[in-house]
Amino acid sequence: MSGQVDASVVALGGGHGLHASLSALRRVVDELTAIVTVADNGGSSGRLRGEFGVLPPGDLRMALAALCGDDEWGQTWARLLQHRFDGTGEMKGHTVGNLLIVGLWELLGNHVAALEWVGRLLGAHGRVLPMAITPMDIHAEVRGLDPADPDVLTHVQGQVAVARTEGHLTGIQLDPPDPEPCPEAIEAVNSADWIVLGPGSWFTSVIPHLIVPGLHRAIAGSDGRVIVVLNLEEQKGETSGYQPEDLLGALLHHAPDLAVHTVLADPRAVPDAELLEQVVVGLGAQLVIEDVSMDDGSPRHDPEKLAGAYARIMRGV
């Protein structure tokens, strides 16, 4: 174990990337808050969003599962939250956790209170909040989709379509452009000692936090030190052909006032360490290159290794 760090930490993202980060952070910090992207329009989340007019619950569910403990109670609940119904009827594809969250939203009429109740049931090591309480869609301008004119920009709408695009993303926007941020998320950012961005789907899970105006202002104005965790490989569609320094460029393109303290990268994902070092130093940040990936060769972060890296960065080791 890496030992506990006396710090308040906020981790922002969604999906598998945030799940990996939270699985690591819960091992080393006592005060942990996940702030989750809520723009998914596919799968079970998209169906529930369309039927009930609620926030998409899927990424919130995954974050709650990541905060479950390693004991039998925690892991049993984590597996149940993630359990997806099979069969051929209307329930096919829905997950237990999504239905539980939406049921509590209907019962309590409050997004945050419902998530707190789920967290209490699970014995979660931290809290989970949506980045905004307004349902939203992601839009993107994509270059290279028109074979007749590779330089023309094509408008792509919806998280699923943006994530799967085969062109080169030049930037994203939200619809509506000024969704109402979750007040508790703003409070968490304002009081954080550390703010963690990434890893994850760069344009559909990480960057959206920086273009919710109220949340952007809180992050840019917070005294919390920002850690950016780079991905282990490019993501087909969203970041095809991207190098590590390109990920940082995309982040700063959407939030040029973001002050970064540390950039964490795995050596297998850094083809040119000298170039990345130059870019990171140019941002006024420090670069930490450390083995944080699974030993089986898969492009996944190892929670124990990542926990150790977080602990050393936060202790200044």
Automatic annotation (TrEMBL):
One matching Pfam family: CofD
Keywords of the record: Cytoplasm
Residues annotated as signal peptide: none
Gene Ontology terms for molecular function: LPPG:FO 2-phospho-L-lactate transferase activity
Gene Ontology CC terms: cytoplasm
Presence of keyword Chloroplast: no
InterPro entries per record: CofD, CofD-like_dom_sf, Gluconeogen_factor
Compartments it resides in: Cytoplasm
A GO biological process held by the record: regulation of cell shape
Superkingdom as given in the UniProt entry: Bacteria
HAMAP family per record: Gluconeogen_factor (MF_00973)
Family recorded in the similarity comment: Belongs to the gluconeogenesis factor family.
PANTHER family to which the protein is assigned, alphabetical: GLUCONEOGENESIS FACTOR-RELATED, UNCHARACTERIZED PROTEIN YVCK-RELATED
Function text: Required for morphogenesis under gluconeogenic growth conditions.
Protein name (Swiss-Prot/TrEMBL): Putative gluconeogenesis factor
Organism: Nocardioides daedukensis
Lineage, opening ranks: Bacteria, Bacillati, Actinomycetota, Actinomycetes, Propionibacteriales
